[in-house]
Structures are given as C-alpha cells and as structure tokens.
Specification:
- By secondary structure, the protein is mostly helical.
- It has a domain of about 230 residues: MetI-like (MetI-like fold), CATH 1.10.3720.
- Helix content is about 75%, strand content about 0%.
- The protein has 15 helices and 2 strands.
- It has a two-stranded antiparallel sheet.
- The protein is globular, with a radius of gyration of 35 Å.
- The termini are far apart.
Amino acid sequence: MTYIERRISCWQAEILCSAQNDTFSLAMATLSPTQSSRPPSLLRRVSSFFFTRPTLVLALLLAAPLLWLGIIYLGSLVALLIQSFYKLDDFTGLIIREFTLDTYRQLFTQSNIDIVARTAGMAFAVTIACGLLAFPISFYMARYASPTSKVAFYIAVTLPLWSSYLVRVYAWKLILAKEGVIGWIFETLGIQGILDAILAVPTIGGPSLSVSMYGTFLAFVYVWLPYMIIPTYTSLERVPRSMLEASADLGARPLQTFSRVILPLAFPGVIAGSIFTFSLTLGDYIIPGVLGNSAFFIGQVVYVQQGTAGNIPLAAAFTVVPMVIMFVYLYLAGRLGAFEAL
C-alpha cells in the first residue's frame, strides 16, 4: 500500500468516528431533557429521606422494643408495686385501695419469714451445687476436649433444654418415687436403711424422695445446671494459654496455677451462671409443688395468694421480696465482674 492510500484510509476512519460521535451526541441531547424532567420514584425519595436522618432511623428501630419494655414489662412491675401498698379487708374480702404498709407488716410474721429463708436457702444451695458440678465439666470442655468432643458436650448439656420443662420435672418425680429407680437401687444393694434414715431427717425429709426437700433440690440442680455450665465454659475459654504457660515457666505447681490464675479469671463466669441458677430457683413454684413437701416457697405463696385466696396485695408484697434479693445479688455480681462474662 502506497503512502497516499494509507492517508486516504486514515481520513476515512476519522470521518467514520466523527459521524458516530455526532450521532451519539444527538441521541443524548434528545433523551436528556426527557430523563431530567422525570421526577424520582417514591421509594427513592423515602430512601433519601431516611438516609439523611440516621437518628430518626435509630429511633424508629428502637421504638417498638422500648415501648414493650416500658409499658408491658416495667409498667406491670410498677402496677405490682402499687398493689403491694393496698390491703385486703378480712371481713368483706375486698381490696381496700388506700396507701398502707399493713401488707408489708404481714411479711414479718414468723411463718412468712420462714418461707423467705427457706426459698433463699434453697436457691443458695442449688447455686453452690451447680457451681461445683459445672466447673469440672466446663474446665474439661475448655482445656482438654477435642473439637468433636466439644460438640458432643454441647449437645449433652443442652439436650435436656430441648424437652418440656414439665416433662423433666415429672420424670424426676417418677425417678424419685418410692417405687422408682433410686429406691430400687437402694433396695437391691441392701442399703434401704440408709435411705430411710435420710428421709427421717426432720423438715427436709418425707415419705419418699419425691415428696421431700431432697427431691426438690435434685430437680432444681438438674434443671438449672446447663445455665451454669455455659457461662462457666465461656469464661474458661477466654483464659489465655500463654498465662498458663507463663505460670508454669515461673515454677508454679498445677494447683497454684489453678488457684491463682485459672480460678480468678474464670470466677466472673461462675458468678454469671449463679445469677441464672439463683434467680430461677428463687421464683420457681412448679418444682416445689410437684416434688416438695408441705413447706411453701415464695413462688407457691404468690400463686396461692393471687389465685385461691384472692389476696393480691399480699401476693404483690411477696413478689417484691425476690426482686429486692436479686437487686442486691446483681449489684454484688456486677462488682465481681459477672456481666463481663455474659
């Protein structure tokens, strides 16, 4: 191809590109006025409105939960507190809606003090037992169990929670009955006398384990134990292995490492678990009603007073007692760093 032919080809290419650009510019000039005059859609305008107002978006997201918390939950507690300052007329059985402390004075009778002490003592005993049982299990899960074993432990710990609460309680009633598995074991081993001696203990004994404080205690521990294991395991999992290695390098024995390194760092998790076990035991009325003897707990008194007896002010006053106990308990738990382990 000669020089002249190459120049002619270049001119033709330039003319073609220029024509294409003119055509594109003409099309854009034709379309632009139509597109610019079209108003934005409603969805785009709403999106732009909320995008420029993040505080409003946050308020709308929190409105429903805060209303539920403020009206349904806190409102019911306030109504309960107000009811506790009323009293029941012994003659007519009607509630006198006048401010008085007579209902709270009834809490300080010896029988009611025994109920509060019994409930708090059971909650404390269940919490201690759950802590003693949960710590070794949690420690093994956190330090020695393989990933596959951890999954198996998780399933084993949470498996009871998959079934109904009432089913578990009544299953324990059958296990602890006089003709149940535990009674059969004692009888087969020829140590029925030991079981009879245990059941003969005043106040906490009974005709069988299923109608005694022993049965109530065992059922409470079984039902609430998962709530202690999980926070304790989480707390132990957070203990750095480097600190254990440093303790060993400094010449600490295993027991010293456990008492001075592992236990202080895992203790907030134990306290966090104790919040669940203590509070749940404090307010439960089903287990004492199914497995206990004639001794009442706070939950049973509240149930009877607001139901059968119709003494709502006394039921409300009894409800305030575990609230005060838990307020003090949560304050002490917070000082011990329990909420950091949740």
